[in-house]
Amino acid sequence: MILIVAYTVSISGKKGSTENAVMTVEKSEKFKNTEIETAIDRVKKEFKGFTNCEMTKIYYDEEKSNMEINYYLTENQENKSVKNADKKIFIVLYSDFEVREENNQNSGFMPGSHHKNWMWLLKKDEFWKSWKVVTFGV
CA torsion angle for 111, 12, 94, 70 (degrees, to 10)? Predict the structure, then answer.
């Protein structure tokens, strides 16, 4: 049994690391700092699934975020949950991360690669006041 557990851990790799990520939050007219920080925490939690990757930076740029949200809502008009959605319940965060050399090819990332401006689109649940990652990528 111990050998099976050891083997599973060895092939699964390390969880995504966010401990050393530099966080930058510019002044926002749309969100309180605590709301942005909560969204960042949600992204960091989601990033743990990025095997053998290390987040180096995570940031919020309101102008870029608003442009991405406008694009997303315009392009997804056929989606009923998005069609009449309030732009105020969406936020886009950006992150940079490194993929470690020992990364498993099955993760979809090239070992040793660097990703900049990785986009995270989140939607706020008004009832629970929590953020949910809607989509992510470049």
Answer: 110
Strand partners, 60: 25
Rounded CA separation 84/86 (Å) = 7
Per DSSP, 100 falls in state -
Burial of 128 (0-12, 13-18, 19+ CB in 10 A): exposed
Half-sphere exposure for 98 (CA within 13 Å, toward CB): 10
Question: What is the SS3 assignment for 49-79?
Answer: CCCCEEEEEEEECHHHHHHHHHHHHHHCCCC
> What's the rounded Cα separation, in Å, for the pair 20 and 99?
14
pLDDT in tens, 63-98: 999 999 998 888 876 666 666 678 889 999 999 999
